[in-house]
Design brief:
Radius of gyration: 29 Å
Oligomer: single chain
Strand order of the largest sheet: 5-4-7-6
CATH class of the largest domain: Mainly Alpha
Number of strands: 9
Mean pLDDT: 86
Order of helices and strands: HHEEHHHHHHEEHHEHEEEHE
Low-confidence stretches: 1-42
Number of domains: 2
CATH topology of the largest domain: Triger factor/SurA peptide-binding fold
Shape: elongated
CATH architecture of the largest domain: Orthogonal Bundle
Number of helices: 12
Distance between the termini: 31 Å
Amino acid sequence: MKSRFLLCAVLVLAISPLAAQMVASHESSSAFGTVPDPSSQAKAKPVARVNGAVLTNADLLREEYAIFPYANQHNAGIPKGMEPEIRKGAMQMIIFEELVYQEAERRKMSVSPAKMEQAMAQFKKQFKTPDDYQEFMKVELGGSQELLRARIRRSLLIDEYLKQEVQDRAVVSVAEAKAYYDKNPDKFRTAESYSIQSISIIPPDKANAAQLQEARRHAEDALRQAKATKNYEEFGVLAEKLSEDNYHVMMGDHKAVDKANLPPPVLQALLAMQIGQVSDLIQIESFYTVVRLNAHNPAGMKTFDQVKDSVRKELAAKRTEQLRAALDKKLRANAKVEEL
């Protein structure tokens, strides 16, 4: 097949990250999702029943690939060691989605015609050509527009229900974030650090005397050139050219390094330097390095304004997990769920 569009994310990518994974099947044909070959719909087997609604191995496989999308690249598959855990997570997810969908139907939630048409149009835009769209429709849905509408409607209902019950309730106010900030000051303290660039010359493992001498000569030449640089950019370009450590691809920039993590010889040199200065040659075991000091960052505490957005995001993520877990427990309480 030229194009299978195997992940359900293709279906409602523009609608919602959550809805993108929520297109299970109640019919005998396969749901949207990852299937091994075009004939797999006919081979779909039940893996769970949720209040009588059947979920198939195609639903499960689609969710597994949503959890581990690399499996769908170059037919890589899911690593054997990860299969049990991924399968368990995928099974929990498709059951949860089905419970959410059934509850949305029980509440008689609806999707407006305008929203449905918008979703249909967005779905079609995911395909590069009309032929790709027609191929998908034929292989996955037997060409049925009604089945497509049913699947998209299901995704939209799940999305809206979770928005009301989880997403909207997980929002963290600025006041709540500030209270968390005030209560947990240690989380926002910053250690003393130095922002540095380096150029390192590293001799081969088990180098002989001649190789060590050659490394020293290269290091002294690098030092001479480093001392001639006038700014961050010039030092960085030289680091990319000469340095043999892992930071050479980043203009030698280590960003801010905690004082406690600096090798003692480097720290000793930095203590005597001014911002913008380049050190003398520093020997650490058998290799040599030259460092440029870009900033000295004293120990302190981040202000609330600096961390406000990240705190709100972190707390909202935790609250989302709690709300989803509580919702799953609530929906399962009076449901009949069977894993086959």
